[in-house]
Amino acid sequence: MKFKLEQSCPSRRILTVACVTLFSTTSIFAQSLTIKGNVKDKTGETIIGASVIVSGTTNGTVTDFDGNFELNASSGDLIQISYVGYKTQTITAQPNMIIELAEDSEALEEVIVIGYGVQKKSVVTAAIARVSEADLERTSPTRVDNALKGLAAGVTVTSASGQPGEGSRIRIRGVGT
Q: Which of 43, 117, 130, 141 could pair with 146 in a Cys bridge, judged by C-beta atoms 3.0 to 4.6 Å apart?
């Protein structure tokens, strides 16, 4: 048997080089990066526990005690940052990011903090007492327990004893609480 060695076709060589270039360029753009960043509010205070998620995925994390986060994402991915009381932001992923969240005062109007969690205002069916900043400014209390005296219905504040500096007893809606 005889084998004949043929010269390769120049167009075949060009096609091979083009395919290799195309696949290597695509893999460069799809590479995963480690995104690091910091989330702050407009005053520069760090936001602890803000959610940082790659949009359209379940890949996410939360900010630590210093407002820092680290996340694996591809370059060009959209990163969504959200936190209760702040407007959600969506930005393009970059290696080092500093994000400033803006307050969302409308969202705060609908949230009520209760003794064991948070609920929307429309869900609450119990009595609600509110002590505003203006109420506190009128009384100028020296201690938090004294601030509630006479300002919230159903809240009774009494001295634990007659000793100076001794704590107070705070009862809400009677002895059973």
A: 141
- Place 113 in a pLDDT band, splitting at 50, 70 and 90: low
> Taking the mean position of all CA atoms in its chain, how far away is CA 154?
35
Q: Residue written as tokens 């509110």?
A: 130
Instruction: Output helix, strand, coil percentages for the chain, rounded to the nearest 5.
Output: 20, 35, 45
By the 10 Å C-beta count (0-12 exposed, 13-18 middle, 19+ buried), 124 is classed as: exposed
For the chain, how far is it from start to end, CA to CA, in angstroms? 101
Helix and strand element counts for the chain (H, E): 4, 11
Distances (CA, A) of 167 to 126, 144, 164: 28, 11, 9
Strands 51-54 and 60-62 turn out to be antiparallel
Taking the C-alpha atoms of residue 121 and residue 128, their distance in angstroms, rounded to an integer, is 10
* Cα angle 34, 35, 41; round to 5: 160
Structure tokens at 96: 């080092």
